[in-house]
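Internal ticket - ligand job 259, NAP:
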Amino acid sequence: MDLGIRGRAAIVNAASKGLGRACAFSLAREGVVLTISARGEEALQETAAAIRAETGASVTAVVADVATEAGRAAVLAACPEPDILVNNCGGPKAGNFRDWTRDDWIAAIDSNMLSAIELIKATVDPMIARKFGRIVNITSSAVKSPIAPLGLSNGARAGLTGFVAGISRQLAEHNVTINNLLPGAFDTDRIRVPVRAMAAQQGKDEDEVMAGMVSTIPARRLGSPYEFGEACAFLCSAQAGYFVGQNVLIDGGQVNSTL
Ligand code: NAP
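stdout (structure tokens):
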């Protein structure tokens, strides 16, 4: 299926590895002109080169911490008026809520709530003027089904989810959509963070905890970043204009609910 976004400009943040990288690849395959970011230059340049080599897409790589104002400004300087914005940032640390300080909470809110909100604020008005905009926030299945050791993530992402629920309804008449894509357990570096925390808590080794977790997923496997990237590209497509303010779970059936 042609997603109808060839030649559109996209920002994909936190895109040197994992889910962000996969989203960038999927959009590049659709002929989108990319600006990608991450803090570490080496992996970011490697990803940019791999995307160019595989897809022939134009890719601008910006070394930036998108949890900071300066980082977001650097990304926007490279692509001031994106048609597509994929908000992503590293997840917060895992642990026991009793240990989390105000600084830990502010860091989580900066990364997983305010970063996306500030970039939405900076980009939606030109999208409205052009009558096209697609914004996808990478959040987490933890928004629907909290993961206890990831309380910083549960809390900060819930704030973003509430904000998006309201603002997405204000923008829909302009063909500007905002949706959240909620990963369950995907095969990236990040999946090791909760697994390590659970292993420490339960006195087990990480492989045992991982196997136990996978056995609870109806699909009986981790998700592949490719599957996630393709879902993201679809939410960014011309055809997805009637998805408004949705929280789309992609989790192999792990969250057990009817709706
Ligand atoms: P990952 O494989 O660890 O990749 C994280 C990417 O984000 C890297 O490219 C990293 O590069 C970049 N990054 C981190 N902090 C950044 C910042 N402040 N500014 C710019 N770039 C930044 O993680 P992932 O699995 O793709 O996860 C992506 C998001 O989905 C995270 O928020 C994660 O918590 C969430 N999530 C993941 C899963 C899963 O199963 N994988 C499940 C639920 C939620 P640098 O470190 O070089 O900046």
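Auto-summary: Helices lie at 18-29, 41-55, 69-78, 102-130, 151-171, 192-202, 206-215, 225-235. The mean pLDDT is 97.
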